[in-house]
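Writing this down once: the sequence line spells out the residues, with the fold written below as integer tokens. I am pasting one below:
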Amino acid sequence: MNAAFYLASQSPRRHELLTLASLRFEPLSVSVDETPRPREAGLDYVRRVVDEKLDAALKIAPDEMPVLVADTEVIFNGRALGKPRDAAHAERILEQLSGETHSVVTRVAVGLGTRRDHVETTTDITFAPLTYAQIQRYCASGEPLGKAGAYAIQGAAAGFVLRLSGSLTGVIGLPVAETLELLSRFDVKPVGP
């Protein structure tokens, strides 16, 4: 079966979620500078990065299929926490989130030619109070590295979550129901039953 759109994301979680949703796509490699600007609010950061990814992808993608890009960020006290540089940084991030509520924002954008559209989900998550030993053990596993907010909700960090209000798949990296609806606006539908 032929691809129906380009996916400009290296995230294995997004690839997996789209495949589970019976969508056929062709990977497209793009790179943008994801360094936050000084005093840039978390939500502004997510929106800017997604817009820049879509601009970059549309410049190199052939016009026959839509392009999908996305970004997921953990936002705490208005700031995007980003991905940890190392285990010590992951520990500091998790210490901030311990016993607190934070938001996970995922923005998904699709473009074809000059046409663009997007969806955005915000999920509020409350972590249980974490002991230093729990944080150390989790960080030693290596799971927090490469993950926004230093955790993977689909992994061992599921045990940290007291409450979740919003899209679980959005926290994983792609709000599937909302993405399917967005892609349908570009006549992309799942294959099969």
User: Anything to note?
Assistant: The chain has a mean pLDDT of 95. The longest helix spans residues 42-60. The chain is about 30% helix and 25% strand. The first strand starts at residue 5 and ends at 7.
